[in-house]
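Entry type: protein chain
Record version: 2
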Amino acid sequence: MASDKDMQALELMKKGVGVDEIRAQLGYRTAETCMKGVKRAIARSRRCKTIETERALELERLSDLYRIVYQMAKTEGDATSIQLCLRIGEQRMRLLAQPDPADETTLGSAFEETVAALDDDARDTAAIAAGRAIAAQMDYAIAHCVGIEVTKALYLMPYLMNILASLGATPKARADIASKLPAASAQTAEAKHEDNLMDEVEKYMSRFG
């Protein structure tokens, strides 16, 4: 079937096989028709794309790269190739260790849930936007980066927590707000009592013109 041939062409291209070689191997008439077949296979793959299939595809690509670079490191002993092997291996292990995103709460989703529970106030828009940007940056680093890059991203956590505190969205911030409420209520009641007294005095004095 043509679709099977297209998928084979895509698999060969992922492995680094040249277009002309793929054309000759699979019987495409021209390099252009071969590339059209690859594009059809990509479109077909995207239609049935899931997190798991994307992860499997990325792992396969990394494995292909690792095999190429490993041979270079093994035969030539090149320090750059060895370092690249280590980085590819680290990225593969990171992908394998990642939980299913459907079962994982990201900082971004948690931040949005927190914001949704707050009282609407346009004055908080800038703070919310800043927190959203920090959460997105950290989520990206956790999902796609490795080693020191992830550690650097985690240094943003205090800034995110400060923003949440300023919005009254941390346990300590809520406790601080609650501790001030009785005093504020007492002051309001006292002021209201004074206003009532003044009203009574003015009412009494009005009787004498």
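Comment: The two ends are 106 Å apart (CA to CA).
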